[in-house]
Amino acid sequence: MLLIEAIKDGSTSGFKVLPPLIVHNDDGSYTPEIQEIYYGS
């Protein structure tokens, strides 16, 4: 899966490649990063 965020007619100088966002741990539970996105702090 690939997540892309863009701005129409935007500059390529602002292009960033971010580290991967892992959704699930090996046991199937959500990672802390996803829990933060879904449920907040």
Number of strands: 0
Order of helices and strands: H
Report the span from N to C terminus: 26 Å
Main sheet attributes: strand count, strand direction, barrel closure? none
Overall 3D form = elongated
Structure class: mainly alpha
Helix count, per DSSP? 1
Proportion of strand residues: under 5%
Unreliable stretches, pLDDT < 50, 5 or more residues?
A: none
**Mean pLDDT across all residues, rounded?**
86
Radius of gyration: 14 Å
What fraction, in percent, of the residue positions are helical?
10-25%
InterPro entries: SAM-dependent_MTases_sf (IPR029063)
Enzyme class: transferase
Protein name: tRNA (Adenine37-N(6))-methyltransferase TrmN6
GO molecular function, one term: methyltransferase activity
